[in-house]
Design goal:
The protein is an alpha/beta fold. The chain has 2 domains: 2-244, Nucleotidyltransferase, domain 5, CATH 3.30.420.40; 251-432 and 449-493, Nucleotidyltransferase, domain 5 (2-Layer Sandwich), CATH 3.30.420.40. Helix content is 37%, strand content 21%. The protein is built from 17 helices and 22 strands. The protein has helices at 50-68, 109-119, 121-128, 136-146, 148-151, 160-169, 176-181, 194-200, 222-228, 242-249, 307-316, 322-330, 371-395, 414-424, 435-442, 450-461, 473-490, and strands spanning 2-8, 13-19, 25-31, 47-48, 75-82, 88-90, 100-101, 156-158, 173-174, 185-186, 191-192, 209-210, 236-241, 257-262, 266-273, 283-286, 296-303, 340-344, 358-362, 402-406, 428-431, 462-466. The strands form 7 sheets. The chain has a 7-stranded mixed beta sheet. Strand 14 and strand 15 (266-273) form a beta hairpin. Helix 10 (242-249) crosses helix 15, helix 12 (322-330) crosses helix 13 (371-395) and helix 13 packs parallel to helix 14. The longest helix has 25 residues, at 371-395. The radius of gyration is 22 Å and the shape is globular. The relative contact order is 0.13.
């Protein structure tokens, strides 16, 4: 018997099959083969067609079943992970009314800032544990203000994962996790933050029905079965945003445990006991194992400008492989002979209170520097942004005992991982798992056996551990120079 998990990112949709009994991976693949398009018709806007996600879910599912050579009838349940903070709006037939306004879209920054000021910092931080910020609720307010004809047709708003659940089951539902990602969960009252909807003038009836994690959230319809290849009647039993799910995938469930992600964006996600938010640079979300008796929250420090910086270099400097880029970078000394890259060219940055910093290439000497210097400086610049983010997390009273990361994207680079580990002074455990695998394994968590789940991760997935290097002085000198350049830029923004 098998479980299937999906991870709906902004670059691709990943699908994974695991053995139900052991949690062992059977197959992991992604669609499309190249990256999905992000539409940006205005600066700092970012949209995707939700139907594209569904199309790739169906293609990936059929491929996984065929390439793993399994009997599809033996798939017993579905787990869903998805890009956080996006907004999908549908009509009464469940059809999208517009493209999804996705996580890295910055159009609603001022709407959220105004709400924070007018509602008041004390209420927002004690009830939402966050500022309304540039999250789903504020994006919905943007639609109301700027696309009133579309807004009048909305039957429900939802997160990207809720939309895929709708396509699979025909039911419109959401979760506490999802609502917290949209700044719509009141932790103090343990219910939807209807007062924020009222402030924005949004009808409370637009909120979907709430379902719990690790329970039957609806079953696959005959229509969805025909389109996807999944057996009709099997349940979705798990749904979470990509960062809480990534933490689950890495067995990050308890206070002091931290999950790190180095993809298009970069993330530290530190599990903590619930307390009022302290800093708007750090966002707090319902974790997958949140219970009233043990209210676990994830403190998320997001860096929009991370892997996208390195990808931009690859695409615009000969399209070399990341392996070749990493090899060239390894031939350059720590500090990149003075070249500094400030890698924040992917919209507003939460850890700078939603300022748009941009990417900056600094101190280039055209007589001595070449592409290898840019590769090293970019890896270092992204690593330094992680170190800066860890400083923000610690300022927000996050406890750091152990850091775990997946064996993909930036963490495959020794330059990147060694730089981060050395400067933050913590080991980084690397695991060969993905969000899709974690979502698939989570299907078996309906009995709440986190111990068995953690054993599956440790037994099946541990690859290596990066230790802080003893010779940290050159790393500290390079970070100090980078931080000085960053602070000069911040004074002009």
């Amino acid at each position: 018997m098998y479980y299937i998990g999906y991870d709906i990112g902004s670059s691709s949709v990943k699908a994974a099959l695991v053995e139900a009994e052991t949690g062992k991976k059977v197959i992991v693949l992604n669609e499309p083969q190249n990256e999905m398009e992000i539409l940006s018709i205005h600066p700092d806007w970012a949209e995707q067609d939700p139907e594209i996600w569904w199309k790739h879910i169906c293609t990936a599912t059929k491929r996984a079943i065929k390439e793993a050579n399994i009997d599809a009838s033996k798939i017993q349940g579905i787990g869903i992970s998805y890009q956080m903070h996006g907004l999908v709006i549908v009509d009464k037939e469940g059809a999208p009314l517009r493209n999804s306004i996705i996580w890295c879209d910055s159009r609603a920054v001022e709407i959220g800032n105004k709400a924070f000021t007018e509602i008041g910092e004390e209420k927002c931080m004690s009830h939402l544990l966050n500022s309304p910020g540039n999250f789903t609720a504020s994006k919905l307010k943007w639609v109301k203000e700027n696309e009133p004809q579309l807004y009048s047709k909305i039957a429900k708003y939802m997160l990207p994962g809720d939309y895929i659940a709708l396509k699979l089951t025909g039911e419109v539902t959401t979760t506490k996790n999802g609502l917290s990602e949209g700044m719509l969960w009141d932790y103090k009252e343990n219910k939807v933050a209807d007062w924020l909807l009222d402030y924005y003038g949004i009808d409370q009836s637009l909120t979907p029905k709430i379902v719990e994690n690790f329970t039957n959230q609806g079953v696959v319809t005959e229509k969805a079965s025909a389109e996807s290849g999944l057996p009709a009647g099997i349940p979705i039993v798990y749904r979470a945003g990509d960062q809480p799910n990534n933490a689950l995938s890495l067995n990050v469930l308890n206070p002091g445990e931290v999950a790190a992600t180095g993809g298009t964006s970069g993330v530290f996600y530190a599990v903590s006991e619930m307390s009022s938010g302290k800093s708007t640079r750090v966002n707090n979300f319902v974790h997958v194992n949140y219970e009233l008796e043990t209210p676990r929250v994830g403190k998320l420090l997001n860096i929009n400008g991370a892997g996208i910086q390195y990808r931009w270099l690859r695409n615009n400097m000969g399209n070399e492989s990341y392996e070749v880029m990493n090899e060239k970078a390894s031939n350059i000394e720590i500090g990149s002979e003075g070249v500094v890259v400030i890698p924040f060219g992917n919209g507003a940055e939460r850890m700078f209170n939603n300022k748009t910093i941009g990417t900056h290439f600094l101190n280039l000497n055209l007589n001595i520097h070449n592409s290898a210097h840019l590769f090293r400086a970019s890896l270092e610049g992204i690593a330094f942004s992680f170190v800066y983010g860890m400083e923000c997390l610690k300022d927000d009273n996050a406890t750091i005992n152990v850091i775990r990361a997946g064996n993909d994207n930036l963490f495959r680079s020794e330059i990147f991982s060694n730089t981060v580990a050395t400067l933050i002074g913590h080991e980084i455990e690397i695991y060969n798992t993905t969000g899709a695998v974690g979502a698939a394994r989570a299907v078996g968590l309906k009995d709440g056996d986190y111990g068995k789940f953690g054993a599956n991760v440790s037994d099946n997935d541990h690859v290596m551990t990066f230790l802080p290097l003893h010779n940290k002085e050159p790393y500290e000198a390079a970070y100090k120079k980078w931080k000085q350049e960053l602070e000069l830029i911040l004074t002009t923004k």
